Amino acid sequence: MKWLLRLYPAEWRKRYGEEFAAVLASQRASLGMAFDVFSGAIDAHLHPQIYNSQSKQNEGDTMTNEMLQRCTVGGPKPSKRDKDVASMFMIGSALVMTVAYLVLTKIYRTRPAVEAFGYASFPVISLIYTQTAYLRKRPIFTQILVAAAGVTAMYLFFFGVCVIASKL
Amino acid sequence: MRKTKEDTELDDFGRFSEPALLILVSLAEGPKHGYSMTEDIEIVAGVRLGPGTLYGAIARLESRGLIEPLKSEDRRNPYRLTGVGERALRARLDSMMTVVRAGQRRLASA
Prior knowledge:
heterodimer, B: 110 residues, mainly alpha
């Protein structure tokens, strides 16, 4: 049953792993015990501040930062440079999309495809920021796949909404 | 009944409130490691805490400074009650005792 320890975060294992394994070894293996360990592991992942003193220093952080940290549990921690690069990409993509939207509106007026482009801009820009910051160290194939899938899904969603709205 | 600061120490432990209280009661006797705590708690309260619950409560108590680990050569780290932990335990037991007495008094007069 010692393999159950792997369900816990690395920091937690570093702090309590050995003594936890000793208690685990002293108890009879059962479904109830496996469930107890499993729910304890979920709790440890959800409340890292309890065992991680480093996290205690972040208690004053904003809710947005906390949410971003939760979203990237297990992923690479972006450095300040990664965040700066991501911000530049975000601002650049916002400018490009604004110009593209204005040009498309000028040529095609308010067709659903153009409207959807406008509505999808903000989520797409957020995706570009997130991807640039958090997937930077991942393989280029992963980055392209996530970007393409994300942008396509968002655009299709807004396109569908705009088509329905135009028929009402 | 007005609650003191010590009395509310275990209030936001959620599902770990009761295990945390049992751990404090166990450590009131002296330092113990995880395995000894589960054995002692089973004798005192008739409950056997699973390792996940035990260490979820230990981590919370430690982060609040209610218990602290002692240095050990052994891989089984013993823990002891701190001053804050002792005050929190006294406050919680006092408030429980008040409820127990009230309940018994009412049952007697019923």
